[in-house]
Amino acid sequence: MASTAYIGIGSNLGDKILHCRRAIGEILKTDRHKLLAQSSLYKSLPIGFTDQDWFVNGVIQIETDFEPFALLQSLKSIEGRLGRRPTFRWGPRVIDLDILLFGVGRIGKIAGELGTGIRAFRDGLKSPEEKKPEEKNE
Questions:
Q1: Is the predicted pLDDT of residue 41 greater than 50, yes or no?
Q2: Is 93 annotated in the active site?
Q3: Are 88 and 31 contacting, i.e. CB atoms less than 8 angstroms apart?
Q4: Angle 127-128-130 from CA coordinates, rounded to 5°
Q5: Which regions of 12-90 does DSSP assign to beta strands (E)?
Q6: What pLDDT, on the 0 to 100 scale, is given for residue 105?
Q7: Which of 22, 31, 53, 84 is catalytic?
Q8: Catalytic-residue membership of 106
């Protein structure tokens, strides 16, 4: 049975836009995922460890036959193939793929069961146009 999932995508190393687009392409290569919607890519400031370059972020909504853990494993595999290497919490990364929502509930419950952390987006899912002027990252 198919479920809806929202995947957060981010990069702050190298060609950030290209890394995000490649990640989306990799996610959609499997015939078990169908793209339902895609946000624009937008620029955002880092959180946590702020002494690093800005991020390009976006979100895709997919329909997937994967269970949450299988989807998480798939995303981690894509990160590795695209060059992500372990650093430190909040550190710079070539690509970052996070399950933001899965099915009808929040992924926090699933992540807690799987023993994995959740990426906290300070800006939420607001587009740059929706941000207050002092929040915009030019």
A1: yes
A2: yes
A3: no
A4: 65
A5: 33-38, 42-44, 55-64
A6: 56
A7: 84
A8: no
Residue 49's closest CA among 110, 20, 7, 91?
A: 91
Catalytic-labelled residue, pool 98, 106, 119, 123: 98
Domain assignment of residue 90, given as a range = 3-135
Domain count, the chain: 1
pTM, rounded to two decimals: 0.76
Angle at 107 between CA 88 and CA 22, to 5 degrees: 60
Q: Which residues pair with 102 in a beta bridge?
A: 5, 105
Answer for the pair 134, 122: CB distance below 8 angstroms, yes or no.
Answer: no
Tell me the residue type at 22.
Answer: R
Residue 81 — very low, low, confident or very high, per pLDDT cuts 50/70/90?
Answer: very high
Which CATH number covers residue 93? 3.30.70.560
89 is catalytic: no
Residue 9: closest CA among 66, 78, 109, 64: 78
